[in-house]
Amino acid sequence: MENKSYLVQMNGNGVHGKTTVNGKSLNGSGVNGKGVHANGIHHVSVNGSLYPAKAKSRRQKWEVKPSEMAKNTLNPIRSIVDGMKLTPNPDKPMIALSIGDPTVFGNLPTDNAVLQAMKDAIDSQKFNGYAPSVGYLKSRKAVANFYSCPEAPLEAEDVILASGCSQAIDLAISVLCNPGDNILVPCPGFSLYKTLAVSMGIEVKLYNLLPEKSWEIDLQHMESLIDERTSCMIITNPSNPCGSVFNKEHLQKILKVASKHCVPILADEIYNDMVFQGCSPSLASLSSDVPVLSCGGLAKRWLVPGWRMGWILIHDRNEIFGSQIRQGLVKLTQRILGACSIVQGALDSILNNTPQSFYNHTLSFLKSNSEICFNELSTIPGLNPIMPSGAMYLMVGIHMDHFPDFKNDVDFTERLVTEQSVFCLPATAFEYPNYFRIVVTVPEVMMVEACGRIREFCQRHYRPLSHDSNDLDQ
């Protein structure tokens, strides 16, 4: 009996059989020693045996282990919070000031125009299928038009849509960095940067923000961290967790450092335009030569984080990124299709039909709550709140010398839950101990109540320093 077998080509376009007899291809094509053609064609024998011989099993027993990437993936917030003993006071209702989700309490709904845009997209039944991996052209064009300005013009080809700003950041880090590279990350800063980088074998170098200067970057420290393996610097403006907003002059100084060392910038601008007074220009609008990948999305400004719509804006007027970075981003989007097609279908209407009054109301509320929180906590001995200028957060320093009952900020915030049922996020989660972060999106009455409970807690545990009445040391 002739030993007939088939060459099965796995090219994603179907299965193509090619007959071979006695191991020889009728069309002259060969097979490698592993039964796989050099062009990805698998050689399968009709009698069920592999050709030329069945390979021995590499394992004698089951041993399935998680990948190195999985083992190296760690979210600092989750690891810290999950380890805390959070048992609220049963006599006081819980007030969570820890979650950066503006929808939690229902007091900050999105605008009706945003909801109507989604309803129209669903009713059209045009967006139920797969979208292109980078997003619909019309949706990308809408984003480009919305953010384009004379100083930093954008076209549809400069926009990549993603599943929320988090995926946009993931794509940006992935396209710029290789294992063994390093990135510069703000401290305190959003924990996701480190989570993503470390899982990919990328070193994270933390540059300091200065609380005494409203969380401006310590530019000298940041510059000292740059070496030949620095693949990008991440700039978060406005800031999570600080609520800080950089002015034009400070942004220009940041660009000067990046330009001097030829380091591209990943700009996390998810809180873009969420500024209490005036405005903060985008980094790209001030850049003459530094290429910028700006990451943003609908989550915060439009108050719909669950809709998972984010984007990367590619600013590369001098063609430093060139075609390779753009092509790399396209390839990365093809790994897993990102942004929801229905939200993409609504995007043009969301961006163009949301009334200015909606944005104004949101900012007015956040500014008012921030002022209430800052003013209340400023009068509490042992605490040092720093007034934010945007976003949704306020950072509070703890003069730990005055609170000997607690080991650190994690212990402090844990006991605050136990005694007062107020949960603030310890800033150790942001690599910045002896501070805690407050989210200012809660209803005003809850903010006032929470500040009162924090006051009661601090008064109970505060101890004056016997040798010095000043609170300069933390």
UniProtKB/TrEMBL annotation:
EC number: 2.6.1.5
Top-level enzyme category: transferase
Annotated metabolic or biological route of this protein: Amino-acid degradation; L-phenylalanine degradation; acetoacetate and fumarate from L-phenylalanine: step 2/6
Keyword Transferase listed: yes
Residues where N6-(pyridoxal phosphate)lysine is found: 300
Listed cofactors: pyridoxal 5'-phosphate
Gene3D superfamilies: Aspartate Aminotransferase, domain 1, Type I PLP-dependent aspartate aminotransferase-like (Major domain)
PROSITE patterns: AA_TRANSFER_CLASS_1 (PS00105)
Domain Aminotransferase class I/classII large residues, every copy: 93-454
Catalytic activity: L-tyrosine + 2-oxoglutarate = 3-(4-hydroxyphenyl)pyruvate + L-glutamate
Keyword field contains Nucleotidyltransferase: no
Any one of the GO BP annotations: L-phenylalanine catabolic process
A GO MF label: pyridoxal phosphate binding
Pfam families reported in the protein's UniProt record: Aminotran_1_2 (PF00155)
Similarity annotation: Belongs to the class-I pyridoxal-phosphate-dependent aminotransferase family.
Function of the protein: Transaminase involved in tyrosine breakdown. Converts tyrosine to p-hydroxyphenylpyruvate.
Matching NCBIfam families: tyr_amTase_E, tyr_nico_aTase
Protein name: Tyrosine aminotransferase
